[in-house]
Amino acid sequence: MKLSENAKIVIVRLSALGDVCHAMSVVTAIRNRYSKAEITWITGKLEADLVSMMPDIKVIIYQKSSGLKGMLAIRKHLINESFDVLLHMQWSSRASVLTRMIKAKTRIGFAKSHSREKQHWFVNTLAPEPKGKHVLDTLMSMAEAIDVPHAKPSWQIDVPKRQTVLPEGYIIINPCGSKVTKNWTLEGYRKLIEHLISKGEKIVLTGGPTPVEIEFVNAIAQGFELDNLVGKTSIKELTAVIQDAKLIISPDTGPAHIATLVNTPMVGLYALSNPERTGPYYGQDSVVSVYKDLAEKEYGKSIAEIPWASTVHDPEAMSYITYDSVLEKVNDELERIAL
After folding, report:
1. What is the pTM (predicted TM-score) of this model?
2. By C-alpha distance, which of 259, 7, 248 is closest to 155?
3. Cα separation of 310 and 101, whole Å?
4. Of 338, 334, 159, whose CA–CA distance to 247 is shortest?
5. Angle, vertex CA 193, rays to CA 192 and CA 199, nearest 5
6. Pair 43, 14: CB distance under 8 Å
7. CATH class of this structure's domain 8-144
């Protein structure tokens, strides 16, 4: 389906940070194809700080906590707007209801094989089958539905200059995921930091402002000379901090995907989700993963037989990642960076 060059396009992708990072690549591809298009993106408050770094994108914030009241406010805000196409990029009933507050001639959802929470009930056009297994490939199928050629993912983003004073050539450790079950072990992180500092590396800890996260990271940092930025940076400043880092080590969470967005090398720690689906798009070789073994054990099937979106439910899954396996990947990346 080819659009006019000055088409009006609205994107609905509310969260989370990692998926929004993937979607930003899709929107970059759409902008490259339709340079004169008017693009509006409806997203969450936290995610809006990330999306706002993209040039020429109108950002509208929807806070999930506002519920139906917030949806009605968006409908009122857009009452005089009519879009040529709406790209429904979120697997969520909340997002589906929100899309009905927006006037659009064509409403595109994921292919039926990738539809969840009855998303296909809320659209009138389905995207083609994704060309790969990664979440980014699935999101990119939306762009292909409007005549955007499949291409190597790229990101167009204007990152502000970093304001935080940090040592040259620092390594970021971002210890926490969105859930505590995504966190690697306290002992593993502390042993890794001790080793890196002994080799002369400068360590920066990053993360969000939740009490649980701050407590865990403070325990990791205790007794070490390092920079602890947990809960102290905005999304824009965090992006700048990640962009200037030599390397980031992180579980599957927003900062890990911001690293891909700004082309910072990373070591990803995976156990609950398949890194081939949710891992760094260009950094699969730098992933430490126990997902395959744990998923095959839980589901009693080979990895090829397990549905693409399946996750591991063992709350101790991350503890199966060994210190030696992480150190090996970190050393490999540092050697590659030094070349």
Report:
1. 0.95
2. 259
3. 31
4. 334
5. 95
6. yes
7. alpha beta
Q: How far apart are CA 66 and CA 243, in angstroms?
A: 33
Q: Is 263 helix (H, G, I), strand (E, B) or coil?
A: coil
User: Given this chain, do its domains 8-144 and 171-338 carry the same CATH topology?
Assistant: yes
DSSP string for residues in 267-320:
EEEESSS-HHHHS-TT-GGGEEE-HHHHHHHHHSS-GGGS-TT-----TTGGGG
**Among 288, 274, 287, which residue's Cα sits nearest to residue 320?**
288
Task: Please list the pLDDT of the chain residue by residue as tens digits (339 residues).
Answer: 999 999 999 999 999 999 999 999 999 999 999 999 999 999 999 999 999 999 999 999 999 999 999 999 999 999 999 999 999 999 999 999 999 999 999 999 999 988 889 999 999 999 999 999 999 999 999 999 999 998 889 999 999 999 999 999 999 999 999 899 999 999 999 999 999 999 999 999 999 999 999 999 999 999 999 999 999 999 999 999 999 999 999 999 999 999 999 999 999 999 999 999 999 998 899 999 999 999 999 999 999 999 988 999 999 999 999 999 999 999 999 999 998
Q: Any idea which fold 171-338 has?
A: Rossmann fold (3.40.50)
**How do the domains of the chain map onto residue ranges?**
8-144, 171-338
